[in-house]
Amino acid sequence: MKIKYFIFLCSVWLIAQNGISKQLEVCSTCPHKTIKSAIENAEDGDKVVVKKGIYKEGNIVIKKSIQLIGLDYPILDGENETEILTVNTSGVTIEGFQIQNVGTSYIEDRAGIRFERANNFVVRNNKLYNTFFGIYLAHSNDGIVEGNYVEGEAAKEMSSGNAIHIWYCKRVKVENNHVKKHRDGIYFEFVDNSLIQNNLSEENLRYGLHFMFSNDDDYINNEFRNNGAGVAVMFSRRINMSENLFILNWGKASYGLLLKEIYDAEITNNRFVENTIGIFAEGSTRVNFLNNDFVNNGWAMKVSGGCLNNQVSKNNFISNSFDLSLNSSAYENSIDGNYWSEYSGYDLNRDGVGDIPHRPIKLFNYVLKKTPEAIVLMRSLFIDIINFSEKVSPVFTPANVLDNQPSMKIFERT
Amino acid sequence: MLKILKYVGYDLLRSRWTYIYCSFFLMISLSLLFLSSDLSKVVISLMNIVLLIVPLIATMFGVMYYYNSREFIELLLAQPIKRSNIFLGQYIGIAGSLSISLIIGIGVPFLIYGVFNSPEIWNFMILLVTGVLLSFIFSAIALLIALKNENRIKGFGLAILVWLFLAVIYDGIFLLGLIWFNDYPLDNFAIIGSILNPIDLSRILILLKLDISALMGFTGAVFQKFFGTGLGIAAAISVLIAWIGIPAWRIKSVSQTKDF
Amino acid sequence: MISINKLHKAFGKNKVLKGIDVNFNEPGITAVLGPNGSGKTTLIKCILGMVIPNDGTIILDDKNIKGEWEYRNKIDYLPQIARFPENLKVKELLSMIKDIRGGEENSERYIKLFNLEPFLNQRLGNLSGGTLQKVNITLALMYDSPLLILDEPTTGLDPLALVRLKKLILEEKAKGKIILITTHIMSFVEEMADNVVFLLEGNIHFEGSLQQLKTNYKSEKVEEAIAKILEGKNYNFSSNGHSKRDVELKIQPNI
């Protein structure tokens, strides 16, 4: 019975695609002057094409499976009063709009485009300006968010929303978006089996990517630039993070990437450049940090308590103020086989691997752990001297934190 | 005093050492700027060099100049001119010519690289200002030491010791103090400890201006807040002025009663 | 012009001047003699204000010089060693002294006399010792002050220059100046001095004219007279200025 029903549905859908569906046009001289009236007259499978113009229609609610297409970026303006597009049904496409001025609300999470319990959606090539929340997805599966530009005017964390906010969704693709100046650039909470790819997230107040309670996701080749606190990935399993660029996340409490309670993740081929802390890991287990570049960070990696069985290998550590800092003395992670620009050993047998192990933890680091106020002596000659003498004959720094096979050469990336 | 200053200036501005000092900074700044076009990074690297070299050279140069001009000082003493003017003229001449070398040595490369059109201009200025203040502080200390010690070896030794103390040993004692009193709130101790030593104070004033201050975390924020208040600025300025004023005043009073 | 009363000076425990009383009022050349450590350089430096006495007064033209500096306008001084800032030009050194003292000067005359024109634009560090001494003399003589103090003016001079210097000193004497000279060269004293002051162990052992010295000690020459003073005191004072019993003298170098 169910299979028959499914076949029936499929054929309805096929028929709709093949001509029974109609196209409704919206413009000042068209049969439909407003988007709302076009939607009212549309049926499932229809296409509503909105031509250039400014449409101030308040909140437009879509409960039919239609394609809503903008030509030459018609402007939907909420006049800082309301949410603009609300979708409550599956199979809706929204494409080619300029959506602006949602206005801040302290009571509800208003959005430029909201999908609530709506599957199989597409949000493509829209421009959103000054939308409190940009694209808001809740309980919606199997959708694509791509090619959108979302720019907010966030000034305070309390009174600002996220650019792309995804909550309780599965199998969502977030690709080629550019998000800017919101609270969080991309927000993931309870989102599984999803892909975040080729996005640029910059100048957000809090996180470029805020990622929680989400398992089996990939994020690949994104750029997170100059965000307030960087990228936070927390309470998640089996995450694959690769080929991302974390850059210029610089501030007192900033980091490129925060890992908290992360299990079985792959962090590979990323670049961490000029972040206060490149990776800040807390309670992360069975994570592989491979082939990453850490360049000009304050701390390349800061590892707090409860990090077990991680592997740090084939990474380049170049010109960081501190390469590695540990907050716990129990250390059960491997850091063998990296390149350290601070390594001063030699390679007599010319096999490309340094003959003496490298100790990435400086004495000053050790002192700072006990007495954080000693940071006032940062970059003083005395500190350089004690760091050097500790390097020559280690007394205080943990003896088991060693790279036994430091690479003599930078690992070339393609 | 101005008359003495003028001729001491003539003498020093033609001195080989002035040129070596100046070209050292020219070369360092140019090569750092060449290696990295990020002015903020260059300011940090230069800071490390300035905080090390300026006090050392000012100390050595001050002592050396005094011992080498003993006979000339005697000639001047026989002239109708106040004693204090001779020594203050010499002091300002030495500190001034060192400062000019520093300003040219660092300033010209940065000008070429367009520091005036860069937001780094203030960081650069604070580096220059602290460099100049350190020149004045350490040449005053050096001149005072030379004036009080006829024995050159003793004078040189003492001067090096003072430099070593302020550049290195002080920080060691300071760090031990911080570790020792770990259980107490250390913010005020850290502020007082670092404000009393002109080298530490200069370093912190520069670091707080730079992006790197983010690495200083909570303690950095406390410092930032302190040096943002009128009290903090007043304290920093009065400490630096005291480091110049007290040795200069001692130079004046020691020279008044000294036999040549 | 100058009267010195009960002048005391000690460097640490070493008492160099023990109550010197002396007047220099008569125009003419006074030779200040004494072995090393006898205090003659200290005495001169006290007059110049370079050494500050522990006790006693120096009155110059009715004014105590203590703490004063303007009085040095009345004194010309030729220091023993000629060393100047290396990178100053001769011209600049001269103009510096002119800047400090102001008023009339006749440096031109000495520049011509010593043929210093070609050196005027050279740095002092590049000059030979002889030329430096000429510059030194020029600096000392370019002003016509009533008191002229020469500290060991004969050191390092070749015979020709010495003859010239003697001539210059006599010229200054002819202008009616009071001239104080410290020297070790007895023949120089014999030839030039009108009066002699002999210092020993911080005290004045003889003060009077050259003739008086010779008559008092029944000697033909100054050297003999000095030797007799020293014999009485068990000292040996050789003409090269080095006492053979330095140890007992506890030599204070010329400071």
Describe the structure.
- The complex is a heterotrimer of chains A (414), B (260) and C (255).
- Chain A is mostly beta strands.
- Chain A has one domain (21-392): Single-stranded right-handed beta-helix, Pectin lyase-like (Pectate Lyase C-like).
- In chain A, helix 2 links the parallel strand 1 and strand 2.
- Chain B is mostly helical and 260 residues long.
- Chain B has one domain (2-257).
- Helices cover 84% and strands 0% of the residues of chain B.
- Chain B has helices at 2-13, 16-35, 39-68, 70-77, 83-112, 121-148, 152-180, 187-196, 198-209, 217-228, 230-257.
- The radius of gyration of chain B is 19 Å and the shape is globular.
- Chain C has 255 residues and is an alpha/beta fold.
- The longest helix of chain C has 16 residues, at 159-174.
- Chains in contact: A-B, B-C.
Structural class of chain B: mainly alpha
What is the helix content of chain A?
Answer: 10-25%
**What is the CATH architecture annotation of chain A?**
3 Solenoid
The CATH superfamily of chain A is identified as Single-stranded right-handed beta-helix, Pectin lyase-like
Could you state the order of secondary-structure elements of chain B as H and E?
Answer: HHHHHHHHHHH
How are the strands of the largest sheet of chain A arranged?
1-2-5-8-11-14-17-20-23-26-29-32-35-38
Unreliable runs of chain A: none
**Which outline of chain B best applies?**
globular
Number of strands of chain A: 39
Looking at CATH, which topology of chain A would you report?
Pectate Lyase C-like
